[in-house]
Write a structure and sequence with these properties.
about 450 residues, 6-stranded antiparallel beta sheet
Length: about 450
C-alpha cells in the first residue's frame, strides 16, 4: 500500500485549496478513463463519468448493472479546510510595512497561524475574461509570508488575555513587503521631498503586475487563500505518521476517490462526491446543502434511461452512503477531554461515528444499527480494521459533517473516516495505517450489494 501513502502525500502537496483538489481529482479520474458526463447522450453499465461545479466540487460515478432505482453506494467527503482568505480590498502599507488583510475561514485557533511560513494560493479573474492561477510560497526559491507576533518582552498584557482573544481576527494580516523609513534629518520635509508615499506598496503592485498582469483592483475579483507553506512530511522515527496541512478532510477525500478509481464496475452504481464549504456549514453552490449532488444524479438518471422525478427520488432514497469525514484522535496529553472507551486512536483503523453533532446530538445524523451491522459484517469478512467512536466527552463540544444533508433523502448514512490528531491546526497528524485501512474500507463498501 506504499503507493496509496505516496499518492496521498502528493495529493496533499498539490491540493491545498478546494480548486486545486478538484482539479487533481479530475486529472486522476481522467487517467482511469473517466469522462465528463456532458460527453455522453446515453450511459451503460461500466461507463465512468464525472460532474464538476465551478471547479470546486466534483462527483464521480461508475455505472453499475442494477437500475439506478435500486440506489447507489456513495462516498461523500469535503475538500475545503480551515485557512485564511484574502479580503477584496486587502493591500495596504502601514509605517513602511506592506500587508494583506485577511478573513479567517472555518474553525481555527487564531494564535496557531502566527510566525509560521505561509503560502498564497488561488486565482485572479481579470476584467478581460482571463484567469491567472497564483501559487507563491511552495517552491524552495519562492518567498513566503508571515503574520507577525509580539515579542515576549512586551507581551505582558497579551499573555493575560485568553487564547481566543489575544490575537483579534482583524490582526491576522500577512507581511508582504517592506520599505525604508526616512532619516531623522528628513523629518521636517514634505512627502514629496522625502519620497513618494506608500512606495513599498507600489513596489509590491509593480511586482504583481510584472508576474501576473494584475492591478490592485483585481483583488476584488480574486479568490486567494493563505495556507501553511511546505509539503507533507513523515512524522516520527518510525515514519508511521504523516504531518500535513488539510488532512481534514482530504485524508478521506483522497482515499474515497482512489477506492472508486481502483474498483471494477459493480452491481450497484458507485459514487464519490467531494464538496466545498463544509467547514462553514456546507453553504453555497458548491456545498452539500446546495442542489449540486442532486443535480448531478439527475444528469446520471437522464442518461441511464428515461428520466423521471420518481426514479431520481427512488435512487437517492435507496442509496447507501459513508460520510467520509475525519474524527478526533485520542490525545493522551489531554485525556480529560475524551471518553477513552468511546474514542478513536491513531493506527486503530477507519472510524465509525454513529452520530456526530454537539452535546445533546444537536445537528447529528444518527445511523441505523441495521446499516452498521451490514458494514461490520462486510469489513470483518474483508479483514479491514475499524473502530467505533465519538468526537469527545458529551459536554465538551462536538462537530458536524455532511451526513445529515444526505440523510434527508432517506438513504442510510454513517460517518466513517480517519482519526486526526491536532485537527484544524495548520499542521495535522494522521497515521499511515489508518489511511490504508480507510482506503480498504471504502473499496469494500463500494462493492456492497446486500439489501436492507
Amino acid at each position: 500500500m506504499e503507493n496509496i501513502i505516496e499518492g496521498y502525500k502528493e495529493f496533499l502537496a498539490d491540493g491545498k485549496t478546494e480548486r486545486e483538489c478538484c482539479s487533481k481529482i479530475v486529472a486522476l479520474a481522467r487517467e482511469k478513463g473517466f469522462k465528463d458526463i456532458s460527453e455522453f447522450k446515453a450511459l451503460k453499465p461500466g461507463d465512468k463519468v464525472f460532474v464538476t461545479k465551478w471547479g470546486k466540487a466534483a462527483a464521480l460515478f461508475t455505472v453499475g448493472k442494477e437500475p439506478l432505482e435500486k440506489g447507489m453506494n456513495i462516498l461523500g467527503a469535503h475538500i475545503d479546510s480551515p485557512r485564511l482568505d484574502i479580503k477584496q480590498n486587502p493591500l495596504y502599507e502601514q509605517d513602511f510595512l506592506v500587508y494583506l488583510n485577511t478573513h479567517y475561514y472555518g474553525g481555527i485557533k487564531k494564535y496557531q497561524w502566527l510566525t509560521m511560513p505561509l503560502a498564497l494560493h488561488g486565482v485572479v479573474c481579470r476584467k478581460d475574461g482571463t484567469t491567472v492561477s497564483v501559487c507563491i510560497g511552495e517552491r524552495a526559491d519562492d518567498p513566503v509570508f508571515v503574520i507577525a507576533d509580539i515579542l515576549p518582552h512586551l507581551a505582558q498584557k497579551q499573555m493575560k488575555e485568553s487564547a481566543a482573544d489575544f490575537i483579534p481576527g482583524e490582526n491576522l494580516d500577512l507581511v508582504l513587503g517592506s520599505g525604508i523609513p526616512p532619516r531623522d534629518s528628513d523629518a521636517d520635509k514634505s512627502d514629496k521631498e522625502r519620497g513618494e508615499k506608500d512606495r513599498a506598496k507600489k513596489n509590491v503592485l509593480r511586482l504583481l503586475k510584472e508576474k501576473y498582469g494584475m492591478e490592485e483592483a483585481d483583488f476584488g475579483s480574486a479568490e486567494l487563500e493563505v495556507v501553511p507553506a511546505g509539503a507533507p512530511r513523515d512524522l516520527g522515527f518510525d515514519r508511521s505518521l504523516i504531518l500535513a496541512y488539510g488532512q481534514d478532510d482530504r485524508s478521506c477525500a483522497y482515499t474515497s476517490v482512489r477506492a472508486l478509481l481502483d474498483s471494477d464496475a459493480a452491481d450497484r452504481t458507485g459514487c464519490v462526491i467531494c464538496v466545498d464549504k463544509e467547514e462553514i456549514g456546507s453553504v453555497g453552490a458548491t456545498g452539500m446543502a446546495s442542489h449540486f449532488f442532486e443535480n448531478a444524479v439527475a444528469e446520471l438518471v437522464a442518461r441511464c434511461g428515461e428520466y423521471s422525478e420518481l426514479t431520481l427520488r427512488r435512487c437517492l432514497n435507496n442509496s447507501y452512503m459513508l460520510s467520509s469525514d475525519v474524527n478526533a484522535a485520542y490525545d493522551p496529553q489531554h485525556a480529560d477531554l475524551f471518553d477513552k472507551a468511546n474514542s478513536s486512536f491513531l493506527n486503530g483503523g477507519i472510524v465509525f461515528n454513529k452520530y456526530t453533532g454537539s452535546r445533546g446530538k444537536s445537528g447529528a445524523s444518527d445511523a441505523s444499527p441495521e446499516f452498521i451491522a451490514m458494514l461490520r459484517a462486510a469489513l470483518d469478512k474483508a479483514g479491514v480494521r475499524y473502530q467505533m467512536a465519538e468526537l469527545g466527552k458529551v459536554d465538551q463540544g462536538g462537530g458536524g459533517t455532511i451526513a445529515y444533508l444526505a440523510a434527508k433523502y432517506g438513504m442510510h448514512v454513517l460517518d466513517a473516516g480517519v482519526a486526526v490528531l491536532s485537527m484544524h491546526a495548520p499542521w495535522e497528524i494522521t497515521a499511515k495505517e489508518d489511511i490504508t485501512q480507510a482506503y480498504n474500507a471504502y473499496r469494500t463498501f463500494l462493492g456492497l450489494r446486500q439489501d436492507l
